[in-house]
Design brief:
Order of helices and strands: HHHHH
Number of helices: 5
Structural class: mainly alpha
Oligomer: single chain
Largest sheet: none
Shape: elongated
Radius of gyration: 22 Å
Strand content: under 5%
Distance between the termini: 56 Å
């Protein structure tokens, strides 16, 4: 029973950290979105894509160096490639919701754009959480971690004890 609860505790901590980074990323996303809309004449979805890209960069740093800092780090190029692929899919989901609201239903006031941008972020977040933890920031397999630790201990035990010199 203890094992199950510790696994649940790890998941709760992971979700909390993911949520903290993601929450800050949402603020970055919405802030950049509204700034771009305010200072430029870009269409709403283009402004949203720019904001999403900025938030993706912000989130990668937070996820890699805080949320998933204990995860496998051996293949950073592969990790970043997968992160960008899944983030691009999330970008399409997020901005697809905004596109549908804006161009499909004509809901394009600043308030409506922010509501549907936020809704799109929420839907895309569910996909991102699953994909990042499953494919991008993978946990080290338990068997591999134990085998690695055992081999280090075995190597240490086979080394001859250092000779101490007495003056």
């Amino acid at each position: 029973m203890e094992r199950r609860s510790s696994g649940l505790q790890r998941l709760v901590r992971e979700v909390a950290k993911f949520g903290a980074v993601g929450g800050a990323g949402v603020l970055v996303n919405l802030g950049v979105f509204n700034l771009v809309r305010h200072v430029s004449d870009l269409p709403v979805v283009r402004a949203s894509i720019i904001a999403t890209v900025v938030a993706i960069a912000f989130n990668y740093v937070g996820f890699r160096y805080w949320t998933y800092r204990d995860r496998e780090k051996s293949g950073r190029t592969k990790e970043l490639t997968l992160f960008l692929i899944f983030s691009a899919i999330g970008l399409v989901i997020e901005n697809g919701v905004l596109y549908l609201a804006t161009y499909g239903f004509g809901w394009d006031s600043p308030l409506q754009s922010n509501v549907f941008k936020f809704l799109g972020i929420g839907v895309a977040t569910l996909f991102r959480f699953w994909s990042y933890r499953t494919w991008v920031f993978r946990a080290l397999p338990a068997r591999e971690a134990v085998a690695s630790a055992e081999s280090i201990l075995e190597q240490e035990s086979q080394r001859p004890a250092p000779q101490q010199r007495v003056p």
